[in-house]
């Protein structure tokens, strides 16, 4: 396939391409740090739809061709990577002032991406070729596998440090995917910056790669090729929805975020009634 740029070639934030016959790539290139803005979220969601349609078009024909036993029935995998010409950021997350002005930003623009990835019908590998902070970390965790650059790359949910509350969906995802509650504590209420070695040790990532973005991409491609046979029978995404049920339920049940000033006001009302 020819690369597809979204939303268009003159303002491209995301490029969809093929790295192999059965492996798609979504490359994010929204400025220097891939902020997950409204246009970026829209472009990324559309890119995921394009890849899924490409896989389903092939899978549908292959699955119905019962006479061709040698045919590769709907193999597929996806790699999500940041701009391979830079080495610093996978994604720096949301623009926090936007969240404060638009409380429905996350459910409107980011939750759909979370739901897409948590039930995506082919394996998804996050090629973390730089820092993944806040929602950038979330994006990587919504993928099935994570391959991370060894040096000059951190994972961090740093909302604690800039005074940002987290939505229920974020805690639900990490409580579902992290190895235990002590890691969740370290992530959220210590705002720890995990080096690649630390992330590998606590199983937040699956592989650490020495070198630049190309090295991370090549390692991700090798992994994608090994996994690409898994969706052939068409149940890969259905099974993912079951094992990710807790996280998906957390997205559906997500209440409105409460900001610090609102909590302070609520405490004031409560204490004035008592004292």
Textual characterization of the structure:
The mean pLDDT is about 90. The strands form two sheets. A seven-stranded mixed β-sheet has the order 1-2-3-4-6-8-10, sandwiched between helices. With about 280 residues, it is an alpha/beta fold. It has twelve helices and ten strands.
State the CATH topology: 2-enoyl-CoA Hydratase, Chain A, domain 1
Mean pLDDT: 91
Helix content: 40-55%
CATH class membership: Alpha Beta
How widely separated are the two ends? 69 Å
| Series of secondary-structure elements, N-terminal to C-terminal | EEEHEEHHEEHEEHHHHEHHHH
> So what's the overall shape?
globular
CATH superfamily: 2-enoyl-CoA Hydratase, Chain A, domain 1
Count every helix, treating DSSP H or I runs of 4 or more residues as helices.
Answer: 12
The proportion of residues in beta strands is: 15-25%
Please give the oligomerization state of what you see.
single chain
Major β-sheet profile: 7 strands, mixed
Estimated radius of gyration: 20 Å
Tell me the total number of β-strands. Answer: 10
Uncertain segments are none
Q: Numbering strands along the chain, what is their spatial order in the largest sheet?
A: 1-2-3-4-6-8-10
Q: Any guess at the CATH architecture?
A: Alpha-Beta Complex
Task: Work out the count of structural domains.
Answer: 1
Structural class based on helices, strands and sheet pairing: alpha/beta
